[in-house]
From TrEMBL:
Organism: Streptomyces polygonati
Record domain Rieske: where: 241-336
Protein's name according to its UniProt entry: Cytochrome bc1 complex Rieske iron-sulfur subunit
Lineage of producing organism: Bacteria, Bacillati, Actinomycetota, Actinomycetes, Kitasatosporales
Keyword hit for Transmembrane: yes
Entry's family note: Belongs to the Rieske iron-sulfur protein family.
Cited function: Iron-sulfur subunit of the cytochrome bc1 complex, an essential component of the respiratory electron transport chain required for ATP synthesis. The bc1 complex catalyzes the oxidation of menaquinol and the reduction of cytochrome c in the respiratory chain. The bc1 complex operates through a Q-cycle mechanism that couples electron transfer to generation of the proton gradient that drives ATP synthesis.
Electron transport among keywords: yes
Database matches in SUPFAM superfamilies: ISP domain (SSF50022)
Length: 352
């Protein structure tokens, strides 16, 4: 027995995989269609002037906190000595200077960052703008559009009319660079004239650094390399490392006919010449000598100097020759200096 009534098929009430049914007609839908932007929701600051003023004060307070952090950074250099150690939980015993510098600089940078973020999130325009993708090269219309958007954004940011934010922001940004100046200043004492002079002076005897005895011409053989230091410089001295780093000397004896530079010959004694031992690249001590070519090699970066030709640079990153020291012999037969180096020793100097 067959039923003769309406056909109740559940599938008729389900949408087709290609779309929905409207009035018996299938309507195709795009599952990847652009849903568009959701309706814009205004922030409290957009509709409540009191809330906007509060946010303005918060931003200004954060910028002011940054300024206080910078001032604290500067004050730390004056208040805390370098060797002061304090106990701070949970870090333990730490340098008071380093801890205060890190803390105050963090406050200074955090104040600027947090202030800028809070300003953007609460006071600057947050309306969503859509724009179609365009070619990389911009036409006049696009440039004008970008310019107008910039003008609109600057106007809506409130930068021109919110003087409190503008003033405190400029103050914070102006003070923070002072931290960098102090950090650079703390890299070490100002050189003043210390790099221009060494312990060498007229009449100073050359002391053999191995025997700690005065050097005599007969002690220096052709093809040998001898190291010397100024008379009176003792290893027990507090500033020994500082002074020897500038005054370290290397002595070689060349055959007079092998010396190519006339000034070098006149500044030596019977073929004995003295040059700074400190490489003019980064200040490494030079100790490798090739007696056949009269070349010395810096072991750090392979800068090579010709001791028979004014110690000029043959190879490597060194920028200028090794300074030469003028020497002679005193009445006791000892090698002596006739003055200091006429140019700063060691790595490149700023006037070069």
């Amino acid at each position: 027995m067959s039923e003769t009534g309406p056909h109740n098929d559940v599938s008729e009430n389900l949408p087709s995989e290609h779309g929905a049914h409207e009035g018996g007609v299938a309507v195709k839908t795009d599952p990847f269609a652009n849903p568009g932007l959701p309706p814009h929701e205004h922030r409290r600051q957009d509709i409540d002037d009191r809330a906007a003023k509060h946010s303005e004060r918060v931003v200004a307070g954060l910028f002011t906190l940054s300024m206080l952090g910078t001032l604290g950074f500067i004050a730390s250099f004056v208040i805390f000595p370098v060797d002061k150690i304090v106990f701070i939980f949970p870090f333990g015993h730490v340098s008071a200077l380093n801890f205060s510098l890190g803390l105050t600089l963090a406050v200074a940078m955090l104040g600027i960052g947090a202030g800028a973020v809070h300003w953007a999130r609460t006071l600057m325009s947050d309306e969503e703008i859509t724009d179609e993708r365009h070619r990389v090269d911009a036409d006049d219309e696009l440039r004008e559009n970008v310019r107008q958007q910039w003008i609109t954004g600057a106007k809506e940011s409130g930068f021109g009319r919110r003087k409190l934010i503008r003033t405190t922001m400029f103050g914070a940004l102006s003070l923070v660079p002072l931290s960098a100046l102090l950090v650079l200043r703390d890299l070490g004492p100002l050189p003043e004239g210390k790099l221009d002079h060494t312990l060498w002076a007229k009449g100073k005897v050359l002391i053999n650094t191995n025997t700690m005895e005065p050097l005599k011409p007969e002690d220096v053989m052709v093809g040998s390399l001898t190291f010397a230091q100024p008379q009176g410089l003792e290893e027990s001295a507090d500033d020994f490392q500082t002074q020897i780093a500038k005054a370290a000397l290397m002595i070689v004896r060349l055959k007079p006919q092998d010396i190519k530079d006339k000034r070098e010959a006149s500044w030596g004694h019977e073929g004995i010449v003295a040059f700074s031992k400190i490489c003019t690249h980064v200040g490494c001590p030079i100790s490798l000598y090739e007696q056949q070519t009269h070349h010395v090699l810096c072991p750090c970066h392979q800068s090579t100097f010709d001791l028979s030709d004014g110690a000029r640079v043959l190879f490597g990153p060194a920028g200028h020759p090794l300074p030469q020291l003028r020497i002679s012999v005193n009445g006791e037969g000892n090698l002596i200096a006739l003055g200091d180096f006429e140019e700063p020793v060691g790595p490149a100097f700023w006037e070069r």
